[in-house]
Amino acid sequence: MKNLKLFTSIFVLITIADLLSITYMPQARNFTKPIILLSLIYWYSSSSSMNKSFVIALMFSLVGDIFLLFEGELFFILGLGSFLISHILYISVILKAEKSGKINYTKLTLCFIPFLLLFSYIFTLIYPKLEQMLMPVVVYASTIAIFGSLSLYFYIVNKKISNLYLLVGAVLFVSSDAILSTQLFHYPHFIKELLIMSTYAFAQYFLVRYMLEKIKQKL
C-alpha cells in the first residue's frame, strides 16, 4: 500500500508536469509526455508476476505517444496504428485474465450499445473532415468500443475491485479518444488538450491498477 501511494503521488506529479508543459512550455512535452508511460511500464514491470503482452501493449502506447508529438498525417497514422495494436493486445489480455466461463453475448451486445451511440454521435461531427482518414478512424473506434464494452460486461458479471479499475480505465480511454477526435476533426480548443491528456494518463494508470490487482488476487 505504501508503494502504491508513493507511485500514485509521483504519477500525479508527472501528469501535472505534462499538463503544465502543454500550457506554458510545449517543447518540454518531448520529455514530459513519454515519461507518463515510461513510469507506468517501470511500475508494472517491477511487480512480482508480469504479463508480457500487457507490457508490449504499454510499449505500443508509448510509441503512439511519441508519434503524436509530431505534426502531419503520416505521424497521425503511425500513432493511430500503434494505439490500435495496443488496444488489440489489451483486449487479448483481458479475455485471458477474465476466465469467467462462457460469455453471455446478449449482455455483451447490450454493453456495446452505449459505446456505439457515443461513437455514432462523434462520427456525425467529424465525418465531413475525415476524408481519407475515414477507414483508419472507423477501425480504431470499433476496436476501442469493443474494449469498452468488454470492460463494462466483465464489471457487470463480476463486481470485483479489479474489474472496477478496468471499467474506469476503459471509460477514461473512450473519453480521451472522443475528445481527441473532436479536437482534430471538428472544433479544436485549448482546454481539450488538457482534458485529452488527463483522461488518457489516468486511463493507462487504471489499466495498470487492474493488472496489479489481478496479480494480487492470484497470491
Question: Which helices and strands, and how do they pair?
Answer:
Blueprint: H1 2-24, H2 29-45, H3 52-67, H4 73-97, H5 105-130, H6 134-157, H7 161-185, H8 190-218
How many strands in all? Answer: 0
Radius of gyration (CA) equals 17 Å
Number of domains: 1
Give helix and strand order, one letter per element, not per position.
HHHHHHHH
Mean pLDDT: 92
N-to-C CA distance: 15 Å
The 3D shape can be described as globular
Descriptive account of the structure:
With 219 residues, this protein is mainly alpha-helical. It has one domain (2-218). The protein has eight helices and no strands. The chain has helices spanning 2-24, 29-45, 52-67, 73-97, 105-130, 134-157, 161-185, 190-218. Helix 1 (2-24) packs antiparallel against helix 8 (190-218), helix 3 runs antiparallel to helix 4 (73-97) and helix 4 runs parallel beside helix 6 (134-157). The two termini are 15 Å apart.
Concise synopsis of the structure shown:
By secondary structure, the protein is mainly α.
What tags apply to this protein structure?
single chain, 219 residues, mainly alpha, 0% strand, globular
